[in-house]
Each structure stands twice: as structure tokens, then as C-alpha cells.
Amino acid sequence: MQKNFFSETLNLVSQTLPFLMITVTFISIAYVYGHTAPLMTAENAFEASKIDLSRLL
Description:
By secondary structure, this protein is mainly α. The chain is about 90% helix and about 0% strand. It has two helices and no strands. The longest helix is centred in the middle third of the chain and has 35 residues, at about 1-35.
């Protein structure tokens, strides 16, 4: 009985762990994007593009 319970628990963990890892990854990406996106305004993006173009010339 104990071995069967351990086997079922391990099976359940192996099925849910990848889903939880993917979920945490997407939530953390959304969190980081939400806290950094307002810093990039249109003016800042234009200035950044001018800097990149000046390096090419």
C-alpha cells in the first residue's frame, strides 16, 4: 500500500511540475515586462535608435 501511494504521488508530481515551471516562467516574464515597459517611452526609443544608427555610420 505504501509503495503504491509513493508511486502515485511521484507520478502526480512528475505531471504537474512541468506545468508549474512553465506557469511561473510566464508569470515572471509578464511581471518583469510590466515593470520595465513604462520606462521605454517613444522619446527614449527614438534616442536609442539614433544611438544605434550613429554606431553604424
